[in-house]
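Section 4.2 – Deliverable D4.2 (structural model, holo form)

The reporting period included a commitment to supply a predicted holo structure for the target in complex with S-adenosyl-L-homocysteine. Inputs used:
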Amino acid sequence: MSRYELTRADLARLLEGAPSYRVDQLWEALYGRFEEPGGATGLPRVLRERLAGEPSLAPALELVDESLADGGETVKWLFACSGSARIETVLMHHPRRSTVCVSSQAGCAMGCAFCATGQAGFRRHLGVGEILEQVVRAARAARDRGRRLDHVVVMGMGEPLANYDNVLEALRRVRHDVGIGARRLTVSTVGFVPGIRRLAREPLQLNLAVSLHAANDPLRDRLVPLNRRYPLGQLIEACEEYLEATRRRISLEWALIDGVNDRPADAEELAAIARRLRAHVNLIPLNPTPGFPAPGTPEQGVRAFAERLGSAGVNVTVRRTRGRSIDAACGQLAARASGAARS
Ligand code: SAH
Ligand code: SF4
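Output (structure tokens):
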């Protein structure tokens, strides 16, 4: 148990004997003002002291490392959580918005060839409290810089739709208790079809980003092993269902790999899917990783690919890489995340 894992009912049990409005005060302190339980505004001192020593109100994440890039506008945290798992969270400030990119799992079981997290394998799902605490810590850090956290993208480590219940519960609380609108919450999936279908029926209507990277099955099978289970035809149908049910614009993520998925034919195939889904395309050159040293498409090739999509009538954005100096994989993640929040 940790402070953001607990429900209101759990807090009520913890505060047994105190008047019930204390529960609301503590909830508001945690979610509205990002306070420590021991420093919760409005609670009497004896109660705060009791809460400060309460083990189930301990934080879930321990800060291991913080790195800054882009003159402090990009911050990456490495956290340790229980069972010695490690996760990353990235906070990015832009002139008019601040976005946090959160992890949904420690590691990932999907095994995408080009992804550092996939190469490292799966550790475990993150709990509601671990996901939420990343958001709250970012919100607090943003406030300390005189900023307000206003976008959340679940695009860090892990496949969010494989940890569906915890991700959704965390985002419900971000929406209702932290107060960030659903239009500013984005989930990025590798194409976990049952999860997309389920998400289409959720009352909480989120933005959906789909990491496509290839627009034909043989190539996608190679880059994204999950495609063998849920091939493109099924993925596109699930996206159509999502679109129909939510009327939200989907974005398609495409990491450009030199000579692999950046040819004119790839652009044509991608354009056909994007038009069918009325989707926005986010392009970014692949970030080489130790397990997949292929180079990203050079700038000129990225531009040519984008132009080809554009002239095929597709709405396309090319991402600027953020946080390069922090470390390559994270810069990648940060660039993607800021793109998702913009589109
Ligand atoms: N599992 C989810 C969300 C986390 S991955 C998903 O796959 O969508 C976040 C994004 O980073 C995905 O779009 C993923 O394809 C992309 N990504 C991973 N490794 C990358 C790399 N080396 N270069 C560029 N993009 C990468
Ligand atoms: Fe997992 Fe996403 Fe990385 Fe694929 S790209 S291994 S789904 S985190």
